[in-house]
TrEMBL record:
Organism: Vibrio variabilis
Sequence similarity: Belongs to the MGMT family.
Record-given protein name: Methylated-DNA--protein-cysteine methyltransferase
NCBIfam families per the UniProt record, alphabetical: ogt
Subcellular location: Cytoplasm
Residue ranges constituting the Methylated-DNA-[protein]-cysteine S-methyltransferase DNA binding domain according to the UniProt record: 77-156
Enzyme Commission no: 2.1.1.63
Biological processes per GO annotation: methylation
Keyword terms, alphabetized: Cytoplasm, DNA damage, DNA repair, Methyltransferase, Transferase
Additional note from the record: This enzyme catalyzes only one turnover and therefore is not strictly catalytic. According to one definition, an enzyme is a biocatalyst that acts repeatedly and over many reaction cycles.
Length: 158
């Protein structure tokens, strides 16, 4: 299946978005290492990508708290389960890795949940930035801990 990508500028830096005919495959800040080597064909006219840009712009302006996009991220069944659970963390709230493991019904899988969270290819839209350490500290974020702090601060403006 063909993949398409585009790049756009956010208040937190450039993001690359990738999609196929089924949905959004990825959204990465320029510093993220989880971006695939092959992105497909560059485009500025894909409806999924354009809708994602519109919704992300609304999010960064404080006008959107939920995303409504078809998602098509590729991962293992366990990763998919974790990524789906991430989408249930309410805007402006944070969960610990333990809470995320509990949410998928696997409370002993805290480390595995952390690894799956770190491999989430759809930054911001699948809000892995809302997961923090049990002690309340900001832990790793593929887009950078500083960017994670800025995203959480943005969501506290209500």
């Amino acid at each position: 299946m063909s993949t398409y990508y585009t790049v756009f500028t956010t208040p937190l830096g450039e993001m690359t978005l990738q999609a196929d005919a089924d949905g959004l495959l990825g959204a990465w800040f320029e510093t993220q290492t989880t971006q695939p080597k092959e992105l497909g064909q560059y485009t500025e006219s894909d409806s999924i990508l354009n809708n994602a840009i519109k919704q992300l712009q609304e999010y960064f302006c404080g006008e959107r708290t939920e995303f409504n996009l078809p998602l098509s991220a590729q991962g293992t069944q366990f990763q998919q389960q974790v990524w789906h659970a991430l989408t249930t963390i309410p805007y402006g709230e944070t969960w610990s890795y333990q809470e995320l493991a509990n949410a998928i019904g696997n409370p002993k899988a805290v480390r595995a949940v952390g690894l799956a969270n770190g491999k989430n290819p759809i930054s911001v839209i699948v809000p892995c930035h809302r997961v923090i350490g049990k002690n309340g500290k900001l832990t790793g974020y593929a887009g950078g801990v500083e960017r994670k702090a800025q995203l959480l601060k943005l969501e506290q403006k209500e």
